[in-house]
Write a structure and sequence with these properties.
Elements: H1 2-5, H2 9-30, H3 37-42, H4 45-90, H5 100-157, H6 166-196, H7 204-226, E1 227-234, E2 244-246, E3 251-257, E4 269-275, E5 279-280, E6 286-288, E7 292-295, E8 299-301, E9 312-323, E10 343-354, E11 357-364, E12 368-371, H8 377-390, E13 406-407, H9 408-423, H10 429-440, E14 450-451, H11 453-457, H12 468-488, H13 498-505, E15 512-517, E16 525-532, E17 539-543, H14 549-554, H15 557-563, E18 565-568, E19 579-580, E20 584-585, H16 586-590, E21 620-623, H17 641-650, H18 653-660
Parallel strand pairs: 2-12, 15-19, 18-21
Antiparallel strand pairs: 1-3, 3-9, 4-8, 4-10, 5-6, 7-9, 10-11, 10-12, 13-14, 15-16, 16-17, 19-20
Length: about 675
C-alpha cells in the first residue's frame, strides 16, 4: 500500500471511503424490507441472463477464430505441398512430361487444386461467419450491456448501489478485439497465399477485400465503444457529491480502455478539455455564457500499472476548472438557480495506432455543474440527482431548458439513497410516506404521481421560506455532523408529522418520547414526550424547541437527552424522558453515546481555580402547570446551564420557581 499510494494518499482515502460507503449501503439495505423500482430494474433477471449469454457467445467466437486458424494452417500446408509437386513437374524435360506417371501426377495435382479451391472457400466462409457473429453480438447484446453499465453508473453516482460489471465487459471487449485481429491476420495470410497461387474462379480476390473492410469497421466501432469514463469527475473533498465541481478546486476522473492489449501500454495519450456550450433558455433568452478551461496536467498516458486490476486506464488527479473572464455585465442575466442548472461536460480524446490502423477515440463525462461558492453545492447536487434520475442521455446539456417531471416513487428511492450513502442508513416506508405527503399533499397513493423539478427544488414549501430540497439537505448535514451514531442505530424516527407523532405516543407510558426533525426550522431536531395529567384521565404532549447545529456544537445530543430537565410549577427539576418509543429505556438506547457521566456540581473541577463553583451544561425548560392552556413555544426556552447549576446548588426548588415566574427571558 505504501509503495502504490505513497505519492497520492488522497487516492487511497477515496477508495476506502467508497468501500465504507458500500458497506453502509449494504447494511442499510438489509434493514429495508422492500426494494425500490430503480434498484429492481438494475437487478433484473433478464439482464443477468443476457450477461451470461454475452460471455458464452464471446467464448464461442474466440474458439471459432482459433479453429479457423487451424484451417488456415492446413490450407497453407496443402498449398506448399501443391507448390512443391507442381514445381517438380515443371522442372522435368518435355519428353518426361509425356510419361504415364507424370500424367497421373497431373491428375493428382488437379484434384489437389480442387481441394485447395474448396478449402479456400471453406476458410473464407468460416471467417465470414465469425465476422457476422461478432457484428451481431456488438450490435445487439454487447451494446445493451454497455448501455446498462452506463445507466448503472449514473444511478450509483446519485447514491444507488455501486455498479459492477466493467471487468466482465473488459474481458468481452478484449476477447472480441483479439478475435478480430486474429481474423485480420488470417485474411493477411490468405493474401500471402494468393500472391503465390491464383487461378480462375479463385474466391480470395473476390471476398477478401470485403471481409477485411468489415473487420476494420468492427475494430473501429469496438475501440470507440471501449473508451469509457470509469469514474466520473469528483472532488476528493466531497466523494458523495460527484459531478459537482468548484472552480480552482482539484477533481479526479478516471478513464479506461476496455480493450486490454499489452502492446498499448503507455502508447495512448489522453487529452482532457471542458465543453463550453452556450446555454439558451427555452424562450431563447441567453442565460449564461460562462466559459471554463482546465488547469493542471490535462494530458496523460494510459497504462496498466496504476490500476489494482491491471486494466488499461488513466486517472487525472490534478485538474482544476477555472472560469474565463467574460464581458462586463454578463452575469446580470443569471438568476438564483441559473448557475446550478447550467450543465457542462469534461471531454477526452486520444488516438490508437495498431497493426496499421489509426483510430481516433472520444468520450465525455456525464454532465457536471460548475460552482464558484460552496453555498451553491446543495442546489447543484439537486440538479445532478434530477438529471441522472430522469434521463439516460449522457450528453443532454440543455436538459434544464425544459426539465421533465420525475416519478415520485423513484425520487423517494433516490432520496433514501442519499441517506444510506451519506449518513449510513436509508429511510423506511413510513419515513418515505411522510416525505411524499410533504411533496404532494394528502394524496392517497404516490405510485403514479409525477413531481415537477420546480416543486422539488425551486418553489418554497407552503408557509416556509425554503424549498423541500434545502430542508432535506439541512437535515442530512445535521445528521452527518451531530447525530450520526444515533441515526445509524435507528433511534431517530426523524420524518414524522406532529399529528402522527401524537397518535403514536398517546397510549404509551408517561415519559415515552421520540425524536423527529423540525418541519419549520432548517436543520433542527426536537423531541416530544407524553405526560399524564394529575387526574390520570388525560395525556399531554410536550415538544422542546428544536436544536440546531449551533446548539449541538456546544453539547452532544445524547448528553442533552441524558441531562435534560424541566421545571414544573411547585416541582423539583426532573428529567421527563424515560423511554424511547416504543418502550426502550433511555439509557439502554443512548448510554453508549454519552460523552461522559455528568459531573457533580459540588466537586471542585481539576482546571478550576480556588473558590470557583464548577459548572456543567444542563439543558432546562420551564413548563407551566396550567391544563387550561397548552404551553407556548416561549415556555420551552432553555435556561443557561451555568446559572441553573448555581441555582440548584444554593437555592430551593420553591425559590427557583419564584424566579422563573418573574418572566425573565433567560434564567
Amino acid at each position: 500500500l505504501q509503495g502504490k499510494y505513497h505519492g497520492n494518499p488522497m487516492h487511497i482515502a477515496v477508495i476506502i471511503s467508497n468501500c465504507l460507503r458500500e458497506e453502509r449501503r449494504i447494511l442499510a439495505a438489509a434493514s429495508m424490507p422492500v426494494q425500490g423500482p430503480l434498484e429492481k430494474s438494475l437487478q433484473n433477471s433478464v439482464v443477468s441472463e443476457r450477461q451470461r449469454n454475452v460471455e458464452h457467445k464471446v467464448s464461442a467466437i474466440k474458439n471459432s477464430a482459433q479453429m479457423t486458424d487451424q484451417d488456415v494452417k492446413y490450407l497453407e500446408d496443402l498449398q506448399e505441398e501443391f507448390d512443391f509437386r507442381y514445381k517438380t513437374i515443371q522442372s522435368l524435360e518435355q519428353s518426361d512430361k509425356n510419361s504415364v506417371l507424370i500424367k497421373q501426377e497431373m491428375l493428382a495435382l488437379q484434384a489437389m487444386l480442387n481441394t485447395l479451391d474448396y478449402k479456400r472457400k471453406e476458410v473464407l466462409s468460416k471467417i465470414g461467419r465469425v465476422i457476422h457473429e461478432i457484428d451481431m453480438l456488438m450490435s445487439n447484446m454487447l451494446t445493451e450491456e454497455l448501455l446498462d453499465w452506463k445507466r448503472r453508473q449514473q444511478i450509483a453516482c446519485i447514491g444507488g448501489p455501486l455498479h459492477g460489471g466493467l471487468d466482465q465487459l473488459q474481458n468481452c471487449f478484449t476477447l472480441l478485439a483479439e478475435s478480430l485481429f486474429q481474423v485480420r491476420r488470417q485474411l493477411e495470410k490468405l493474401d500471402e497465399l494468393l500472391t503465390r497461387l491464383t487461378y480462375d474462379g479463385d474466391p480470395i480476390p473476390v471476398q477478401r477485400p470485403q471481409l477485411l473492410e468489415k473487420v476494420n469497421f468492427l475494430l473501429y466501432n469496438l475501440f470507440r465503444n471501449s473508451f469509457v469514463v470509469e469514474r466520473q469527475p469528483c472532488m476528493p473533498t466531497h466523494p458523495q457529491r460527484p459531478m459537482v465541481l468548484k472552480t480552482l478546486i482539484q477533481f479526479t476522473v478516471k478513464l479506461r480502455l476496455l480493450i486490454k492489449l499489452p502492446e498499448l501500454n503507455y502508447q495512448i495519450r489522453v487529452k482532457a478539455t471542458i465543453d463550453n456550450v452556450t446555454c439558451v433558455h427555452k424562450w431563447n433568452i441567453l442565460c449564461s455564457n460562462r466559459r471554463f478551461l482546465l488547469c493542471g496536467t490535462h494530458v496523460k498516458a494510459m497504462n496498466m500499472d496504476e490500476s489494482a486490476n491491471g486494466s488499461l486506464s488513466v486517472e487525472f488527479r490534478h485538474l482544476q476548472p477555472k472560469e474565463m473572464k467574460s464581458s462586463a455585465g454578463s452575469k446580470g442575466n443569471e438568476g438564483p438557480h441559473m448557475v446550478t442548472e447550467e450543465l457542462h461536460s469534461i471531454s477526452f480524446e486520444t488516438q490508437v495506432c495498431l497493426c496499421g490502423l489509426t483510430i481516433n477515440l472520444e468520450t465525455s463525462s456525464l454532465p457536471v455543474v460548475m460552482i464558484s461558492n460552496v453555498s451553491q453545492l446543495p442546489n447543484a447536487w439537486a440538479s445532478i440527482i434530477w438529471y441522472n434520475l430522469s434521463t439516460n442521455d449522457p450528453q443532454n446539456l440543455s436538459f434544464f431548458n425544459n426539465p421533465p417531471a420525475a416519478p415520485l416513487s423513484q425520487l423517494l428511492e433516490v432520496l433514501s439513497w442519499q441517506f444510506s450513502s451519506y449518513v449510513g442508513r436509508g429511510l423506511n416506508s413510513e419515513q418515505l410516506n411522510m416525505l411524499a405527503e410533504k411533496l404532494m399533499g394528502q394524496q392517497v397513493s404516490y405510485n403514479d404521481y409525477q413531481l415537477s423539478w420546480a416543486k422539488f427544488c425551486k418553489e418554497h414549501l407552503p408557509g416556509k421560506s425554503f424549498t423541500f430540497w434545502i430542508w432535506l439537505e439541512a437535515i442530512l448535514d445535521l445528521i452527518k455532523k451531530h447525530i450520526l451514531p444515533l441515526w445509524i442505530d435507528g433511534y431517530v424516527m426523524g420524518f414524522i408529522s406532529k399529528e402522527k407523532e401524537r397518535i403514536l405516543l398517546k397510549d404509551k407510558t408517561p415519559g415515552t418520547f421520540l425524536l423527529r426533525f423540525s418541519e419549520s426550522n432548517l436543520g433542527g431536531i426536537t423531541f416530544t414526550w407524553v405526560d399524564q395529567l394529575e387526574n390520570g384521565k388525560y395525556v399531554t404532549f410536550h415538544s422542546v424547541e428544536p436544536y440546531n447545529k449551533g446548539r449541538l456544537s456546544a453539547l452532544p445530543f445524547a448528553d442533552i437527552l441524558r441531562d435534560y430537565k424541566v421545571i414544573m410549577a411547585d416541582n423539583v427539576p426532573e428529567n421527563p424522558l424515560k423511554y424511547l418509543y416504543p418502550d426502550i429505556p433511555k439509557d439502554k438506547a443512548f448510554g453508549k453515546h454519552y460523552s461522559c457521566q455528568p459531573s457533580e456540581v459540588s466537586k471542585t473541577s481539576d482546571g478550576g481555580g480556588k473558590g470557583y463553583v464548577p459548572s456543567v451544561f444542563i439543558p432546562v425548560s420551564k413548563i407551566l402547570n396550567d391544563t387550561a392552556d397548552p404551553p407556548s413555544p416561549s415556555d420551552l426556552l432553555p435556561m443557561s446551564p451555568s446559572v441553573y447549576a448555581v441555582l440548584r446548588e444554593h437555592l430551593s426548588p420553591t425559590v427557583i420557581e419564584t424566579a422563573v415566574s418573574c418572566e425573565l427571558p433567560h434564567l
